[in-house]
């Protein structure tokens, strides 16, 4: 009703997600569970909001291609952040053990990874805000069109 751009909801979820990563980085008792729940819920919000945002930004002509590019970020981000970044930082924190295996025990093993993820969320927050302000006119036009259509329908039904 207030023509709030969908990227604004993405921005809100990014800030909450950054808080979830910071909670995990603090490594307090139970913080891994709480942080994981918060981050998981924010991923759900982002997926639910990104799909209609893509149709509003780019239309429906090439929607299948655009949707698949959007969904590609999930495995790509998992590979880059969880596979490469987390692995490299874990190996840097780990100590060599018997048999040539690296082991790391404690909160410091992944703290830097969680903090980097929080920073990435803050950057995403800024980009979502930028997109929101750029799309405000689009949402105001959509709202005006819906209002005009509703007035036309109510006038038509009042005559009949």
TrEMBL record:
The keyword Transmembrane helix applies. Keywords: Membrane, Transmembrane, Transmembrane helix. The keyword Membrane applies. SUPFAM superfamilies: MFS general substrate transporter. InterPro entries: MFS_trans_sf, NFD4_C. It is found in: Membrane. Residues 6-137 form the NFD4 C-terminal domain. The chain crosses the membrane at residues 20-45, 65-90, 110-131. It is a multi-pass membrane protein. One of its GO terms (cellular component) is membrane. Its main location: membrane. PANTHER family: OS09G0536700 PROTEIN (PTHR21576:SF167), UNCHARACTERIZED NODULIN-LIKE PROTEIN (PTHR21576). This is NFD4 C-terminal domain-containing protein.
């Amino acid at each position: 009703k207030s023509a709030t751009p969908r990227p604004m909801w993405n921005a809100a979820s990014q800030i909450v997600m950054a808080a979830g990563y910071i909670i995990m980085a603090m490594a307090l008792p139970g913080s891994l569970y709480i942080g994981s729940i918060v981050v998981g819920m924010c991923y759900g919000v982002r997926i639910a909001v990104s799909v209609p945002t893509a149709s509003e930004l780019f239309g429906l002509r090439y929607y299948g291609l655009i949707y698949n590019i959007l969904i590609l970020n999930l495995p790509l981000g998992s590979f880059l952040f969880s596979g490469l970044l987390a692995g490299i930082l874990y190996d840097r924190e780990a100590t060599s053990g018997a048999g040539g295996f690296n082991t790391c025990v404690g909160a410091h093993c992944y703290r830097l990874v969680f903090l980097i993820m929080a920073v990435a969320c803050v950057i995403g927050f800024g980009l979502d805000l930028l997109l929101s302000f750029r799309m405000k006119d689009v949402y105001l036009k959509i709202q005006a069109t819906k209002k005009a259509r509703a007035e036309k329908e109510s006038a038509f039904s009042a005559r009949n």
